[in-house]
């Protein structure tokens, strides 16, 4: 013979089973009836017949195990249990609607989280444009940016799911990754503002043979160091690297401090720095590629939305660092103020970028 506890447990289990079979449409029907307190009006609003609605409410009361409405020929009233159930039903449906909306927004790439890593030389021009547009179009996506990182570290972080997307420099040796080359950038040389080469419109790499270099670490295996080294060797010399720095911004600061010169992509010229001048290398110097990468098989809608924004941004931008001949890159781009001042006298360079201001 079952004990009292067994009977209670069975009753509880039966109640759970009944509630599990409760239909959401019955909750919606109950809410409309409770608000109208009139079955005919409620049936018309719900586009069902009155007998169908009556059956739904009776079934709901069976599932709940309590009378929710008092029905007479003249009126409909909520019981005390019905008033409490109405409050909870509204909360349940609101939660369901929120969940459905959240799922739909995630499926459209409008909600979620995205971790993006980047190499330092992609920071100053392209990345700000993309992140501004992504935040504008997807304000509810949590965008986590990680940098500056070199390509080997970025590849490893992607493979280990620490990043979802990365901007890096080929070659990328990781079969698990999907890699898309975005563009090829021309290289320039960054020199202190007082350096004799600062007044050159463009610089031949061979002129740097006796110069001290500031560079990314060779041991880290970054693409920027490899391209710089290969270019120097092709010009007949091995660069004398006197200072290494992982972050591009630090390299720029060290050059401005007079510690040496640096070979960097021309896109770094978007960074305004006092004390250094970026000049394009001759057209015969190879460029360096910038790519975006993600894990193969990644079906994340947020990731796909981000890549779409990358593609649109690249299609719309008009940057002098992209696929432009050396002569055009070498143009000084001095503004009218500079030209007017230089007609009177020369002076020290104040700001570094794609053009220079001179002190009158």
Biggest sheet features: 5 strands, mixed
* Overall pLDDT level: 80
Kindly give the count of domains: 3
Instruction: Please tell me how large the radius of gyration is.
Output: 34 Å
Q: Give the class from helix and strand content and strand pairing.
A: alpha/beta
Q: What is the CATH superfamily of the largest domain?
A: Periplasmic binding protein-like II
Overall number of strands: 14
Q: Quote the beta fraction.
A: 15-25%
Helix content: 40-55%
Principal-axes shape call: rod-shaped
Taken in chain order, the helices and strands follow as: HHHHEEHEHEHEEEEHEHEEEHHHEE
| CATH-defined topology of the largest domain | D-Maltodextrin-Binding Protein, domain 2
Provide a descriptive summary of the structure in words.
By secondary structure, the protein is α/β, with parallel strands linked by helices. The chain has three domains: 4-107, Arc Repressor Mutant, subunit A (Orthogonal Bundle); 111-183 and 290-316, D-Maltodextrin-Binding Protein, domain 2; 187-286 and 325-358, D-Maltodextrin-Binding Protein, domain 2. The chain contains twelve helices and 14 strands. The strands form five sheets. A five-stranded mixed β-sheet has the order 4-3-5-12-6, sandwiched between helices. Strands 10-7-11 form a three-stranded antiparallel β-sheet. Strands 1-2 form a two-stranded antiparallel ribbon. β1 (69-71) and β2 form a beta hairpin. Belongs to the LysR transcriptional regulatory family.
The gist of it:
With 360 residues, this protein is of the alpha/beta class. The protein contains 12 helices and 14 strands.
